[in-house]
Amino acid sequence: MVGVLVDACGWAALIDAGLNLDDAMQGVIGQADLMVLECVHRELDLLSQQRKGLLLNLLERRSERISDLEGMVHADEMLVTLSGSRGWPVLTVDRGLKERLISSRGSYIEVTSGRFLRLIET
User: Which site in 1, 8, 44, 108 is 20 to 30 Å from 50, CA atoms measured?
Assistant: First the structure.
């Protein structure tokens, strides 16, 4: 299994695209171990108060929650650090985060307009 860090906007984009989590990940990296930082979990909780249908129960059942990194306050900073150190791609559609991941030799999985996932590695 491959660890995949989940960014809040990446999860929302996956759900909005109507993708089946297992099928979509299988086609890109095989079986995925979803990892959710505490700060990303909080972002998703806040987002779910503004909009329905984020399937947070599914994410909760299918993921492992990991503690925020000490000395860091921003989710993107933590995601970039973990992606680089552990070799885990980040599920995201955030352009700025994707650029930071590529410059730091990280990788990401994006939801494309064609309603499938694509892995981008350096």
Answer: 108
